[in-house]
Amino acid sequence: VVVVIEEAYERLAATGIPRERLLVVANYTNLSDLDQPIRHAGEESSQFTIVYAGGFAATRDLRTVVDAAALISPETIPHLQIQLLGGQGAEYENMCAYVRSKGVEQRVNVFDWRPMAEVWQHIEQSHACLVPHVRSPHTDSTIPHKLFQYMARQKPVIVSDCAPLARIVTDNACGLVYPSGNAEELAKAIIQLYQSPEQRTIMGQHGRSAVLREYNWEQTAEGLLQLYRTILPMKA
Q1: Which member of 103, 193, 208, 216 has the lowest number of beta carbons within 10 Å of its beta carbon?
Q2: DSSP secondary structure, 3-70, as one string
Q3: What's the longest Cα–Cα distance across the chain?
Q4: CA separation for the pair 85, 125 (Å, rounded)
Q5: At 90, is the secondary structure helix, strand, or coil?
Q6: What is the mean pLDDT for each group of 10 consecutive residues in the chain (236 residues)?
Q7: Does residue 174 contact residue 215 with C-beta atoms inside 8 Å?
Q8: Is the model's pTM score more than 0.85?
């Protein structure tokens, strides 16, 4: 059984599956994501920009992100821009309506599906990136690819306390963790990063170093290749 993160390995092992029958092939990113030069945020804008890239399903908990934006006054962060990228269909329309209902249209921008090249541009121009997923048994044993893409591009991250997210971000000191669904604590995390440019820089560097060292596909793929070799030995 191949799983994408250590927490899933432990979850299945607890059901009685022998550990030798389990393999972690993590949902890490490619080292090619580190190839482009880092473009520091703020070079062309006075805005403080935070990016989320991904689906808009309820499990992504983007409404808590919008609620957090509504709690941050313009006096606290004068030029806050939260960019939500990737909505489609009804989920996109519903998120736009929710932003309007909270009166934060000037601080939260909602984008529909964007080509990956454009997503990279948004990430590059951001000061921090978000993974706000709802904590559940599912998200406690899975990991989103976007986390490692953010880290690869040297962005500090703000994540909810889903077990794998919290472990990786805490162990590598590459961002902040807040309780899932808690808009007040998310707002505090955003304000903390806004007020701490040096902390943002250090966290971003830690994240990028961690991807180079460990959280990349080239590292984790070797286990999968070895599994294939075991199942079907290569012929001379």
Answers
A1: 103
A2: ESSHHHHHHHHTTT--GGG-EE----B-GGGG-SPP--TTSS-S-EEEEEES---GGG-HHHHHHHHH
A3: 70
A4: 14
A5: helix
A6: 94 95 92 69 73 96 98 96 95 97 97 91 95 96 95 96 98 98 98 97 97 92 88 65
A7: no
A8: yes
